[in-house]
């Protein structure tokens, strides 16, 4: 393990790792509150690998890790493979969007650690292709996100199928009442560890906003990218269609632009993320499908082209930068009608966002000169109706 950590350039543990690893190795259940980008994947991956040891010849998995998204399943599998260097640990990722037959074949050849999304895990359990009777450790990663997107019934069904004598590790950015109920029902005297700072966002992230009219957002984005020249950036849109439209326009100016959203086939999403991690894609236009759990260390800028639907989503979007102590910058485009949304975000993170401007660029249309009210205007002369023609009636239009 020490050789693998040295090879991965993990020299000093983050607070999450220093707090969780000893307790997880001691075999206790842990409920850890930690945001993404704090090294929590290694905090549960290292104890799992240490507890598996070197005798991993059985056909059935000894550890199950549940995650909310396909991208996070791939990321966790890759992290475990990196930390298992020099061992013969078999880690299988199972998630929707890929042919289920291939995943069944991998499981039939034997697995030690399974990383999966709840929907695909349920599917494979129903087919008896995945068996859980030898499980020793269950991890719920990004548990709050899984509950947010409606996975509670699936998670409970999976946990009921797991052996009673097991260790459970639950990690969540927030400990809402739903998380507490889950922990109370399916964990044994869990130790609660809070690694969240007092503020909701990282201190190393500069956060700014622009007041901008909807129709001027694209031009503002182009000018902002020219001004900032980001190392790598994610531009968040609210809808899949909006993501497609923005990508179509921006890709004409910049070949290093790509997009990712939930309607794309899984192989295409994997391809985009591979290029983004390799640095071939500099600007990724995305929906909230990558709002959580994607760990790309070189992201220097986050741009909220569309404001998120909830204030919590803002925290998770912005958390894509400033990871593991690095510095990052976040910009939000706020239309005149979205002032209340900006206020909610500032209240949640307990920080005022700084207003920014691009020199020489008018983000908001100048107000038109006041028009003369009908009461003050002189009445226009009524033209007499032509002979044999009915006079035109004037109708008042409703607003």
From TrEMBL:
GO cellular component terms, alphabetically, are:
cytosol
Give the region (Disordered) as residue ranges.
Answer: 363-399
The UniProt gene name for this protein comes to cshA
Reported EC number(s) for this entry are 3.6.4.13
Report the source organism: Bythopirellula polymerisocia
- Ranges for domain Helicase C-terminal: 204-369
- List the transmembrane segments: none
Q: What is this protein called?
A: DEAD-box ATP-dependent RNA helicase CshA
UniProt lists compositionally biased (Basic residues) regions at 390-399
Keyword annotations of the record:
ATP-binding, Helicase, Hydrolase, Nucleotide-binding
């Amino acid at each position: 393990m020490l050789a693998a950590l040295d090879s991965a350039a993990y020299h000093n543990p983050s607070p999450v790792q220093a707090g969780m690893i000893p307790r997880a190795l001691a075999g206790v259940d842990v409920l850890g509150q930690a945001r993404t980008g704090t090294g929590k994947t290694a905090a549960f991956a290292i104890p799992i690998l240490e507890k598996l040891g070197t005798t991993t010849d059985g056909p059935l998995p000894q550890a199950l890790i549940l995650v909310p998204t396909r991208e996070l399943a791939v990321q966790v599998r890759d992290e475990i493979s990196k930390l298992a260097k020099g061992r013969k640990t078999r880690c299988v990722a199972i998630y929707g969007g890929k042919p289920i037959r291939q995943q069944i074949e991998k499981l039939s050849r034997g697995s030690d650690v399974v990383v999966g999304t709840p929907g695909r895990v349920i599917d494979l359990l129903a087919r008896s292709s995945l068996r859980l009777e030898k499980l020793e450790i269950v991890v719920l990663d990004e548990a709050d996100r899984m509950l947010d997107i409606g996975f509670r019934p699936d998670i409970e069904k999976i946990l009921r199928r797991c052996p009673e004598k097991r260790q459970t590790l639950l990690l969540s950015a927030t400990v809402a009442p739903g998380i507490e109920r889950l922990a109370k029902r399916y964990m044994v005297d869990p130790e609660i560890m809070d690694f969240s700072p007092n503020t909701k966002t990282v201190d190393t992230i500069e956060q700014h906003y622009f007041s901008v009219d909807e129709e001027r957002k694209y031009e503002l984005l182009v000018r902002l990218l020219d001004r900032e020249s980001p190392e790598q950036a994610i531009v968040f849109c609210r809808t899949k269609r909006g993501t497609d439209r923005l990508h179509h326009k921006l890709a004409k100016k910049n070949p290093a632009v790509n997009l990712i959203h939930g309607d794309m086939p899984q192989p295409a999403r994997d391809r985009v993320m591979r290029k983004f991690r390799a640095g071939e894609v500099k600007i990724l236009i995305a929906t909230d499908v990558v709002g959580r759990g994607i760990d790309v260390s070189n992201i220097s800028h986050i741009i909220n082209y569309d404001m998120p639907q909830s204030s919590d989503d803002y925290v998770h979007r912005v958390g894509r930068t400033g990871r593991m102590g690095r510095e990052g910058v976040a910009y939000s485009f706020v239309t005149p009608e979205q002032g209340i949304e900006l206020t909610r975000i500032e209240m949640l993170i307990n920080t005022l966002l700084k207003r920014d401007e691009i020199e020489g660029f008018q983000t908001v249309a100048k107000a038109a000169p006041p028009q003369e009210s009908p009461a003050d205007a002189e009445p226009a002369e009524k033209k007499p109706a032509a002979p044999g023609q009915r006079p035109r009636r004037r109708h008042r239009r409703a607003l």
